[in-house]
Every structure is written in structure tokens, then in C-alpha cells.
Specification:
The chain is an alpha/beta fold. The chain contains 16 helices and 14 strands. The chain binds beta-D-glucopyranose.
């Protein structure tokens, strides 16, 4: 007889997307501007273009999600569409997202709405993005318009997606990303800008929709260091994660997004240096950032090929580590006992769909183990519903449960989609 792992009643079983990665033609955004810059300093692999044309095909896509057996759809609303010029709100775009929410509800699907997922309106970027002191005001004005439109029927809002990834990439240059700044002082200002914007948005949401549950979706990895590298690893983790987690003390939930584990290898010469010195601007920029950038380059899909170190890797080049989510969720739970945790992303870039099933299976076992220990995890949302635009890597990495033909836009659910949908529909995982 096969035993099975039972999940709690009303568990959220979902899949996620982000506007810029699936909608297509996000023409008034900073990313679109970069992707289409004829002479960029560094170019993305390809432009997003029509993406998955989800802007027009969302009904069918939500239908597919529901037919698979999932009950939750996490998606983002696009600020650049809603406010394409400062203070000018596009009613058609607002209506569109109202329709997306209604489509979810008609299909018995819980909509989880992210307000900002990496992209900004180009006008916001030109005005200084996250370091502009007006940013929290801009963000909460935009938030107000969105929540006035959909706040009566959306239970969960994630204000900002992966602030740590977004700001370390954009302001420390760990990966190429707008606004292409490389400076610790600017990073500090941008991180403050994100955290303040988050708090203002949260207050705004609560004012309009007091029952809504509000949080951020955090990129959290399992961190390791070489002997002597611990202090600098803690500093790297603080820049990527803790700086933003600590701003979430008063949030209703923490969104956990874990893809892999990270090994920091710093020169041993750094080991005897005091934590304070390691955190100085000079050493951060001269020791830590080269280590992080080198690591980013080493894990790029292009550099991946056959790894010399024998470590099993995903299509993104980083280690295959589905159960790293257990380390991160337990860490967050220790920081914020009793706070609701939602696995807002977990997924794998692979052409091998059997490997995706393995990845989800291992992730769900880890989640179940934490549930058995009493961790308040309310759902698991897989990244991603569709094969989509993987930022600077273009369309090569395949994260989707559903394949998308790049010429015809035809959708084909993969075996992993059917497998995962059946787990969700039965609310249990066979062992
Ligand atoms: C992001 C997604 C991205 C995914 C896979 C997360 O960091 O939120 O936008 O596509 O990881 O790399």
C-alpha cells in the first residue's frame, strides 16, 4: 500500500508569472527601453517582444491552470502600463487587471497580486528609480489606484518582488539590470527606498482594504562559505536578504522564494579581518562584489556546459537544490515565529521535464516536513505557469509547467503540469 503525505485543508496550490515576462509589449517600461537600446553597455540575450502574449491570452491561461487542478494564480500588475506617464493612469489597463482578477474568481482560483516585479515605468527610472526620495510617494499613489480597483476581491498583495535580487543587481551590479549602478552608497539609498516604499504601500493597502494580507516576496537562498569566509558570507546575505526581511516585521506574511544554494569562496586573506572592516565600502566593493560577480558569471547558462566540479546544476547554471527551501523557510520562521509563510516561488530551469517533477516532489516533501513541525505555511506556488522571458537570459531557460511555442503561441501542458495538478487536486503527495 502506498502511503501519502496529506496537506492542510485550504492549502494554496499555485503557479506564478510576472507581467513583463509573459504579457508582451511592455513598451513603457525601463526593461523594454534597455532591451531595445541600439547601443547598450551590456546587452540582454534577446528582447522580450511579444513574450507569451498573456496580456491577450490570460483567460485561456487561467483556464489551463484551473483545469490542471491548481487553485491559486500569482501574477503581477504592471506599473508601466497602469501609469505610463507620471500621474496619468490608464483606465483600460486598470480595467484589464480587474478582468484578470475576475477571471480567476470565476474559475475558483485565488489571485495573489504582486504590485512590482523588477520592471518600473521608464519615467520612474528616468527620475532616479529607488534612490529618488519621491519614490515611496509615487509607489503608494500607484498602489492606491490598483487597490481601489481590485482590493475588494484580492486577499493577498505582495508589494515588491525579490527586493534583494533587484537592488543588488541594479545597484551593485551582481547581474546586468537597470539602472546599472555599481556603488554601495547608492545601494543603501535604494534599499531604504524599497523598504520605505513597501511600508507606505502596505499602509495604503490596509487603508483601502483592511482585510487584505500584505507582504513582500523575498529571494532567499541557502548560504555556505569556505572556512574563513563566514563573515563575508553573512555580509553578502545581509545585502541580499536580511536588509529587506527586517523591514517586514509588521507584514502579514513573508513570501519565500528559493531556487538554490550559494557557496561563497572568498580569499583566505579576508578571514582575519573584522566584520566591521569587511563591511566597509572599500572592501565590499573590492573583495565581496568581485566574488559575487564572478559567481554570477560562473553560473550563467552560457558558462554552464559540463560542470567541472561534479555538482548537479540546473539550466541556469546554479546547483540543483529543491530542498534548499527548507533551510530558508526555517530561517524565516525563526526570525518571525508564527508569521504566515507562503512559498511564492520555487522552480527549476530545465529542458528535462522529469527533472521538474523531481524538483517539485522534493520541494513539497520539504514543505510537508515543515508543516508537520508546525510551521505556518499556507501555500506552495510554483514558478512558473508558462515558459517565459527569463530576463537577461532571454527565452532559453525553461521554467514552465506549460510549454509555449515561440512562433504560434500554442500552449502545451507538460507531464509535470499534469503531475503537479493531480497532487494539488488530491491535496496529497504519494510517497
Ligand atoms: C524571479 C522570476 C524569475 C525566476 C527564475 C525569480 O528570481 O522572481 O522573475 O524568472 O526567479 O529565475
Amino acid at each position: 500500500m502506498t502511503a501519502s503525505l496529506q496537506f492542510p485543508d485550504a492549502f494554496y496550490w499555485g503557479a506564478a508569472t510576472a507581467a513583463h515576462q509573459v504579457e508582451g509589449n511592455n513598451t513603457t517600461s525601463d526593461w523594454w527601453e534597455w532591451e531595445n537600446d541600439p547601443a547598450p553597455k551590456v546587452a540582454p540575450a534577446e528582447a522580450s517582444g511579444e513574450a507569451c502574449d498573456h496580456f491577450h491570452r490570460y483567460r485561456d491561461d487561467i483556464g489551463l491552470l484551473a483545469d490542471l487542478g491548481l487553485n491559486t494564480y500569482r501574477f503581477s500588475v504592471e506599473w508601466a502600463r497602469i501609469e505610463p506617464r507620471a500621474g496619468e493612469f490608464d483606465q483600460t489597463a486598470l480595467q484589464h487587471y480587474g478582468d484578470v482578477v475576475d477571471t480567476c474568481l470565476e474559475r475558483g482560483v485565488e489571485p495573489i497580486v504582486t504590485l512590482q516585479h523588477f520592471t518600473l515605468p521608464a519615467w520612474v527610472a528616468h527620475a532616479g528609480s529607488w534612490t529618488n526620495p519621491d519614490m515611496p510617494g509615487y509607489f503608494s499613489r500607484y498602489t492606491r489606484r490598483v487597490v481601489e480597483r481590485i482590493g475588494d476581491r484580492v486577499r493577498y498583495f505582495a508589494t515588491i518582488n525579490e527586493p534583494g535580487n533587484m537592488i543588488t543587481r541594479g545597484y551593485l551590479g551582481t547581474y546586468p539590470s537597470p539602472p546599472f549602478v555599481r556603488d554601495l552608497t547608492a545601494f543603501d539609498a535604494a534599499a531604504d527606498g524599497v523598504n520605505t516604499s513597501h511600508r507606505h504601500a502596505r499602509d495604503m493597502i490596509k487603508q483601502i482594504a483592511p482585510g487584505a494580507r500584505v507582504g513582500m516576496a523575498h529571494a532567499l537562498q541557502e548560504w555556505h562559505a569556505n572556512p574563513g569566509g563566514e563573515q563575508i558570507m553573512l555580509w553578502a546575505r545581509e545585502l541580499h536578504e536580511d536588509r529587506f526581511l527586517t523591514a517586514c516585521q509588521d507584514d502579514d506574511f513573508i513570501g519565500v522564494q528559493t531556487y538554490t544554494r550559494v557557496h561563497i569562496n572568498v580569499p583566505r586573506i579576508a578571514a582575519p579581518l573584522s566584520a566591521a572592516l569587511l563591511r566597509s565600502r572599500f572592501l565590499t566593493q573590492s573583495v565581496l562584489l568581485p566574488v559575487l560577480r564572478q559567481q554570477a558569471a560562473a553560473v550563467s547558462p552560457a558558462a554552464q556546459a559540463v560542470p567541472a566540479d561534479g555538482i548537479r546544476r540546473t539550466q541556469m547554471g546554479y546547483p540543483f537544490a529543491p530542498d534548499a527551501v527548507e533551510v530558508t523557510a526555517r530561517r524565516v520562521n525563526a526570525l518571525f515565529p508564527h508569521k504566515e509563510l507562503l512559498i511564492t516561488e520555487h522552480g527549476v530551469g530545465t529542458e528535462n521535464d522529469t527533472e521538474r517533477i523531481e524538483y517539485i516532489d522534493h520541494g513539497l516533501r520539504a514543505v510537508h516536513c515543515m508543516l508537520s513541525d508546525g510551521l505556518p505555511i499556507s501555500g506552495y506556488i510554483h514558478w512558473s505557469l508558462l515558459d517565459n522571458y527569463e530576463w537577461w537570459h532571454g527565452y532559453r531557460p525553461k521554467f514552465g509547467l506549460i510549454a509555449v511555442d515561440r512562433t504560434t503561441q500554442q500552449r502545451t501542458p507538460k507531464a509535470s503540469a499534469r503531475w503537479y495538478g493531480a497532487v494539488a487536486a488530491q491535496n496529497q503527495l504519494s510517497t
